[in-house]
């Protein structure tokens, strides 16, 4: 179950990132998804808890997807955000 859940998150978050990048405006894409932004800490907690129990490559892929999402939703670095 843990492997399936990890794989599902990798596929879903990677797909979400591709869709966001295809819009050409990551900030607007994620502005329209406040629930997703609110869930990122939970996804990160899942990744950290699952890390010792799933293959290292799966943990690394999930970490990479989450890191990209965290960077994309880090609004203080946006021009004109403040």
Could you please describe the fold and organization of this structure?
The structure is a single chain. By secondary structure, this protein is an all-alpha fold. It has helices at residues 2-23, 26-31, 34-50, 56-72. The mean pLDDT is 91. The N and C termini lie far apart (43 Å). The chain contains 4 helices and no strands. The longest helix has 22 residues, at 2-23. Helix 1 packs parallel to helix 4 and helix 3 runs antiparallel to helix 4. 76% of the residues lie in helices and 0% in strands.
Structural class: mainly alpha
Mean of all residue-level pLDDT scores: 91
The largest sheet is: none
How many β strands by DSSP? 0
Q: From N to C, what is the helix and strand string?
A: HHHH
Helix amount, in percent?
over 70%
Low-pLDDT runs of 5+ residues are none
What is the radius of gyration computed over CA atoms, rounded to a whole number of angstroms? 13 Å
Between the first and last Cα atoms, what is the distance in angstroms?
43 Å
* Beta-strand percentage range: under 5%
Number of continuous helical runs = 4
Outline, from the CA principal axes?
elongated
């Amino acid at each position: 179950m843990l492997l399936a859940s990890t794989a599902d998150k990798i596929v879903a978050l990677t797909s979400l990132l591709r869709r966001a990048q295809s819009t050409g405006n990551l900030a607007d894409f994620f502005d329209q998804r406040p629930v997703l932004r609110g869930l990122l800490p939970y996804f990160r907690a899942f990744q950290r808890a699952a890390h010792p129990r799933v293959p290292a490559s799966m943990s690394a892929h999930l970490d990479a997807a989450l890191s990209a999402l965290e960077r994309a939703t880090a609004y203080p670095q946006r021009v004109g955000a403040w």
